[in-house]
């Protein structure tokens, strides 16, 4: 979604803004802009589409730029008003002296806009953001102090904002404020940064101050001052970022998505590290801050998440119910927040999110906390807002994920759920000890099995080539791999724009079978070990009888499979209950290669954002 970076200091300001915005690009955007303080003037450059267009725009105007000393930049993902030059940020007040960039949505912008028009403000865009520019300028005209003007303005805003403001009359001062949208200050020497997310500043500093809701930062090159909305100084902790800049490099891979798929074996090793080190020792989850006594009596868990994290949660439900016998409900955050739930102080609520910034999940977590539930967050971003709300936090340690399509974070979430489910089972003594030992042994083997898949992808590439011209797919599975079908279909949909649906195989004949013919391939996930295998096999026969082309994803060497299916994608043998952790890999690759063959923008698919920070 939108991204913000601000800088004041001794470096090349435009370069810092561009690098920062480039490192936020993965979040998804449709236009970009910067405002710089140069030669005692505020100069604004904007463009539609990718950052390269903005870079070219600035290059063309190079002769008018002297030596900028500070600036703010923004990439916009349109919410209010179409993606257009006039709607791109930064926005200004009527006279152009004050500039603003903003992430989030101002809910009362229409009322404010009407009031400001009556006061003589001239609006040029359809955005909610422009209202902030006029509002702060109006408040500034009353007090002649930018910090106070921002403070007085944000008190009037309803909704979500991370906002950065500069004023021509206040040289090299950037004022930032936030509510329900992330914002941080990067602390340097003789320079300081402000940004909506850490990748924007990681090349320059690891020292970070995270703003909390209703806090205001006044940033100059030599000073950072944080106050609350009433102007009272807040003493904030300077935290050290856990990332290295190399996390933002493709390391020779054509796309971040491919790099991230290949990182999965190491990601699994990271997740297991320190938690499962000896198959004879119990899983160690010090992060779970609930006593064993309470966990033993726990009879309800609710998991809330969106998208890929929701699919990982479905596997989590299966595992916790199967291993620990605790009833688990899984719900999309966007549904949970708009109904009367039964969450109470005896419920364990688990929020799952790669980014830790998904607005719906944050709202859901806040609602659960209001009901006094214990909130456990499983996230890849221990530095996120969601992590800050957690009573217990399981960091999934996948490393920064740049590609919009989640891959390694999904696998890391799955492994976290395996650990959590076994941890609960060990506390409740609900599983046979030798079964647990075996599971742990197989968990440790998973990275090597995934390496086997990654070492030879020619079959998957061949399948992608063969099927890339189809417009519709159905992915079917049963049991624990139903989530794999949902996730595989989502991957294909989001990066190739092909219509793919994950379906419980047993439901095929209750409707979707009507669509089957030679134009609708069916991808069946058949992992031997339980009753599901034979059942999915028969459901695949039913699809074949309707002339559908069939793809099998399986670890089986069964001759029936070879004769029934048009293409067989093989994975190494694995216990059925662990199979989602390896079955997802060929499906990620299949989606990747299809999108590649179709020439799609794999890492930044259209209309999508890496973290969805609006509800
Ligand atoms: O950061 P989160 O895990 O909370 O994000 C949830 C979804 O927006 C995300 O998983 C989305 O579905 C991905 N693009 C999937 O690849």
What's the architecture of the largest domain in CATH terms?
A: 4-Layer Sandwich
Bound molecules: 5-amino-5-deoxy-1-O-phosphono-D-mannitol
Number of helices: 19
Q: Within the CATH hierarchy, at the fold level, what is the topology of the largest domain?
A: Glutamine Phosphoribosylpyrophosphate, subunit 1, domain 1
Query: Which CATH class of the largest domain?
Result: Alpha Beta
Mean pLDDT: 94
Radius of gyration: 26 Å
Q: Which strand-content bin applies to the residues? A: 15-25%
Helix percent band: 25-40%
Q: Main sheet, how many strands, which sense, barrel? A: 8 strands, antiparallel
Describe this structure as you would to a colleague.
By secondary structure, this protein is an alpha/beta fold. It folds into three domains: 3-246, Aminohydrolase, N-terminal nucleophile (Ntn) domain (Glutamine Phosphoribosylpyrophosphate, subunit 1, domain 1), CATH 3.60.20.10; 249-452, 3-Layer(aba) Sandwich (Rossmann fold), CATH 3.40.50; 458-597, Rossmann fold, CATH 3.40.50.10490. The protein has 19 helices and 24 strands. The longest helix is centred in the C-terminal third of the chain and has 23 residues, at 433-455. The radius of gyration is 26 Å and the shape is globular. The N and C termini lie close together (12 Å). 5-amino-5-deoxy-1-O-phosphono-D-mannitol binds at residues 306-309, 353-355, 358, 361, 404-406, 494, 608, 611-612. Residues 306-309, 353-355, 358, 361, 404-406, 494, 608, 611-612 line the site of 5-amino-5-deoxy-1-O-phosphono-D-mannitol.
């Amino acid at each position: 979604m939108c991204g913000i970076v601000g800088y004041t200091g001794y470096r090349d300001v435009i370069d810092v803004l561009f690098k920062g915005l480039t490192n936020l690009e993965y979040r998804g955007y449709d236009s970009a802009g910067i405002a710089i303080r140069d030669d005692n003037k505020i100069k604004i450059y904007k463009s539609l589409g990718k950052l390269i267009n903005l870079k070219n725009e600035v290059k063309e105007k190079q002769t008018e730029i002297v030596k900028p000393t500070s600036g703010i930049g923004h990439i916009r993902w349109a919410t209010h008003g179409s993606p257009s030059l006039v709607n791109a940020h930064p926005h200004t007040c009527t006279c152009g002296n004050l500039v603003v960039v903003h992430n989030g949505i101002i809910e009362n912008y229409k009322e404010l806009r009407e009031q400001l028009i009556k006061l003589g403000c001239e609006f040029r865009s359809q955005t909610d953001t422009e209202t902030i520019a006029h509002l702060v300028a109006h408040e500034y005209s009353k007090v002649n102090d930018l910090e106070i003007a921002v403070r007085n303005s944000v008190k009037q805003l309803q909704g979500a904002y991370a906002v950065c403001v500069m004023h021509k009359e206040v040289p090299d001062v950037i004022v930032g404020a936030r509510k329900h949208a992330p914002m941080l200050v990067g602390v340097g020497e003789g320079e300081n940064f402000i940004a909506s997310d850490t990748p924007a500043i990681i090349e320059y500093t690891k020292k970070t101050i995270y703003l909390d809701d209703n806090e205001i930062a006044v940033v100059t090159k030599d000073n950072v001052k944080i106050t609350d909305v009433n102007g009272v100084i807040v003493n904030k902790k300077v935290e050290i970022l856990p990332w290295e800049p190399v996390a933002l490099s493709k390391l020779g891979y054509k796309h971040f998505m491919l790099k991230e798929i290949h990182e999965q074996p190491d990601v699994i090793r990271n997740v297991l590290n320190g938690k499962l080190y000896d198959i004879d020792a119990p899983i160690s989850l010090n992060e779970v801050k609930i006593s064993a006594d309470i966990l033993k009596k726990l009879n309800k868990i609710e998991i809330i998440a969106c998208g890929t994290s929701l699919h990982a949660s479905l596997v989590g439900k299966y595992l916790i119910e199967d291993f620990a016998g605790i009833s688990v409900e899984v719900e999309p955050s966007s549904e949970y927040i708009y109904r009367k739930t039964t969450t109470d102080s005896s419920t364990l609520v688990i929020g799952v999110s790669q980014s830790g910034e998904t607005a719906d999940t944050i709202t859901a977590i806040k609602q659960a906390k209001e009901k006094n539930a214990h909130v456990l967050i499983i996230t890849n971003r221990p530095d996120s807002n969601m992590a800050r709300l957690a009573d217990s936090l399981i960091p999934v340690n996948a490393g920064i994920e740049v590609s919009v399509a989640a891959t390694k974070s999904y696998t890391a979430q799955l492994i976290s759920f395996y650990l959590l489910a076994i941890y609960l089972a060990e506390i409740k003594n609900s599983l046979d000890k030798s079964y647990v030992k075996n599971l742990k042994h197989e968990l440790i083997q998973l990275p090597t099995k995934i390496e086997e898949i990654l070492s030879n992808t020619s079959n998957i590439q061949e399948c992608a080539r063969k099927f890339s011209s189809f417009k519709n797919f159905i992915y079917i599975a049963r049991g624990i791999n139903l989530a794999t079908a949902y996730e595989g279909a989502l991957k294909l949909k989001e990066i190739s724009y092909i219509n793919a649906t994950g379906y419980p195989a047993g439901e095929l004949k209750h409707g979707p079978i009507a669509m089957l013919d030679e134009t609708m391939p069916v991808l069946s996930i058949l992992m031997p070990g339980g009753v599901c295998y034979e059942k999915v096999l028969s459901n695949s026969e039913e699809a074949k009888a309707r002339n559908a082309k069939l793809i099998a994803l399986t670890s089986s060497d069964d001759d029936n499979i070879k004769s029934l299916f048009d293409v067989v994608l093989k994975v190494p043998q694995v216990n059925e209950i662990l199979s989602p952790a390896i079955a997802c890999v060929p499906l990620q690759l299949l989606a990747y290669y299809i999108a590649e063959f179709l020439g799609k923008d794999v890492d930044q698919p259209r209309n999508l954002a890496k973290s969805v920070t609006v509800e």
